[in-house]
Design a protein that fits this description.
- With about 160 residues, this protein is an alpha+beta fold.
- It has 5 helices and 9 strands, in the order βββαββαααββαββ.
- It has helices at about 30-40, 65-80, 95-105, 105-110, 130-140, and strands at about 5-10, 10-20, 25, 45, 55-60, 120, 125-130, 150, 155-160.
- It has a 5-stranded antiparallel beta sheet with strand order 1-2-3-5-4, with helices on one face.
- It is elongated, with a radius of gyration of 19 Å.
Length: about 160
């Protein structure tokens, strides 16, 4: 997986593009990858032997349509993120506003959007009540992707807002 443009969640790479933009590798369940490749061998192929241990499949970009690529990338992203994040684009406007407040650390605007008896559970964290949830959110850093990427002299420079 060297020489690729990689997109990560934490340290997990969920999609990568070749430098010549002709191929894309993406997270995909090992048990289902043979079926995917058999369904469209002109589009999908196995990664190099050294990467077969990973849940990974590759695709030829010219053979993929934009909707199919979007679905593959989203599914790969979902493989390495908490389930509570999977349907965020489909959430109601109030939930999207709450997520935007969390992203901006705007706790004053977030408070009225949360129900007073809110129960939040994610992995080992279980919280009850708006104040407990707000206190927890203030103490946990919110991961933020870089907002700007610049390539100079073959190096990638990223900076956040």
């Amino acid at each position: 997986m060297r020489g690729l443009w990689k997109f990560r969640v934490g340290q997990i790479v969920y999609v990568a593009f070749s430098a010549d933009e002709q191929a894309m590798g993406f997270g995909y369940p090992k048990a289902a990858r043979d079926g995917l490749i058999a369904s469209a061998p002109e589009t999908f192929f196995l990664p190099p032997t050294s990467d077969l241990r990973f849940q990974w499949v590759c695709a030829r970009l010219p053979s993929l349509g934009p909707d199919e690529m979007r679905e593959l990338v989203l599914d790969a992203w979902r493989m390495c993120t908490p389930k509570m994040l999977h349907d965020l684009p489909e959430l109601p406007a109030r939930a999207m506003a709450a997520r935007a407040c969390i992203d901006e650390s705007d706790w004053a605007s977030l408070s009225p959007l949360l129900h007073p008896q809110l129960h939040w559970q994610d992995r080992r964290v279980s919280l009850r009540g708006r104040l407990d949830v707000l206190s927890h959110l203030r103490s946990v850093p919110t991961p933020r992707p870089p907002t700007s990427v610049e390539i100079r002299d073959g190096q990638i420079y990223r900076w956040s807002r």
